[in-house]
Amino acid sequence: LGSTRSLLSPFPQLAPSAGGPYSFLASVPLGRTSYKEQYLFIYRSDMVSVLGSYYYDDGCEPCGNDTFSREPFIVKFSSPTTQVQELVLVPLHSEPAHAVQEIDALYDVYTDVINKWGTNDMIFLGDFNADCSYVPSSQWPSIRLRSLRACQWLIPDSADTTVADTDCAYDRCVPGLARGAGSGHGGLTGTNSPRCLGSIVACGTALRQGIEPGSATVNDFQKKFHLQLKDALAVSDHFPVQVTLKAH
Predict the structure, then answer these.
(1) What is the CATH number of the domain that holds 102?
(2) Domain of life of the organism in this record (predicted)?
(3) Is residue 32 part of a domain?
(4) Which positions ≥6 away from 123 have C-beta within 8 Å?
(5) Rounded Cα distance, 130 and 140, in Å
(6) CA angle at residue 106 from 98 to 102, to 5 degrees?
(7) Based on the structure, what is the number of domains in the chain?
(8) In a structure prediction context, what are the per-residue pLDDT tens digits for the chain, which is 248 residues long?
(9) Of 123, 135, 141, 189, whose Cβ has the fewest other Cβ atoms within 10 Å?
(10) Strand, helix or coil at 110?
């Protein structure tokens, strides 16, 4: 948490130039070993507000039967200025060695959110570690969220979201909606191995319809700011992925 506070300490000074006041919500440190990570949401507090949050109950960690190395910290937001005025964000940084099992278990998180909050307007965000050797093509048909008609994987299978000299799409976005033919987003139309580590997966009819078409992209900051590889890696080993919601 100390590093989180250090990261966010410049925000009060940056707020005027960044367009408004910012706030944040962070999870507790998560992980099965002494190595821990946190999920962090940074948001414009004059435009969105937190309606609720909870940790997905994935089993007994001390007993060794929990599902996720870092269980999702699920947050419901109110967003009065966008077409979709309430949505749920579900982050996951999967353990590479168990990526198949953890990504598949996101379907159970999906149904849990519906049972708890009565909505399937949610976005799964992650470093899913869902490419290269972590999730072979033979495993994708068994991953329930991949074939769920209510959800759509927004970052194309061909996208490279890693800064290093690999060609893997670890970062994905998935929004949910009943999928129609010819949707133009390739994520759910086949079972070829996606090149995806980071992800955006959108679910829910209202949410899918509330996304600006073509807005899901990879932000290649290395190219944008003409950085050498070593300088880009000093920032992050992943390029950010982003998507835009339609204004209300």
Answers:
(1) 3.60.10.10
(2) Eukaryota
(3) no
(4) 87, 88, 89, 90, 173, 174, 175, 200, 201, 202, 203, 207, 243
(5) 9
(6) 5
(7) 1
(8) 556 667 667 666 666 666 778 899 999 999 999 999 999 999 999 999 999 999 999 998 888 889 999 999 999 999 999 999 999 999 999 988 888 999 999 999 999 999 999 999 999 998 887 665 666 677 778 889 988 999 998 986 667 777 776 555 445 445 543 333 222 322 222 233 334 455 899 999 999 999 999 999 888 899 999 999 999 899 888 888 899 999 98
(9) 141
(10) helix
Residue whose pair of structure tokens reads 């991949």 in the numeric block: 146
Distance separating alpha carbons of residues 52 and 142, to the nearest angstrom: 32
Give the DSSP H or E segment for 130. Answer: strand 122-130
Q: Nearest Cα to 110, choosing from 148, 77, 140?
A: 148
Would 41 be classed as within a structural domain? no
Q: The domain containing residue 80 runs over which residues?
A: 52-242
Measure the CA–CA gap between 75 and 57, rounded to whole angstroms: 14
Residue 60 and residue 53: Cα distance in Å, rounded?
20
In a domain? residue 236: yes
Instruction: State both tokens at 221.
Output: 């900051």
Question: Measured between alpha carbons, how far is 142 from 126 in angstroms, rounded to an integer?
Answer: 19
Question: Which structure tokens are listed for 28?
Answer: 């507790």
Distance of CA 155 to the CA centre of its chain: 11
Q: Which of 71, 86, 93, 185 is catalytic?
A: 93
Report the alpha-carbon distance of residue 197 to residue 35 in Å, rounded: 20
Q: How many residues does the chain have?
A: 248
The helix/strand/coil state of 6 is: helix
Within 8 A by CB and 6+ apart from 87, the residues are 76, 77, 79, 121, 122, 123, 204, 207
Respond yes or no: is residue 95 known to be catalytic: no
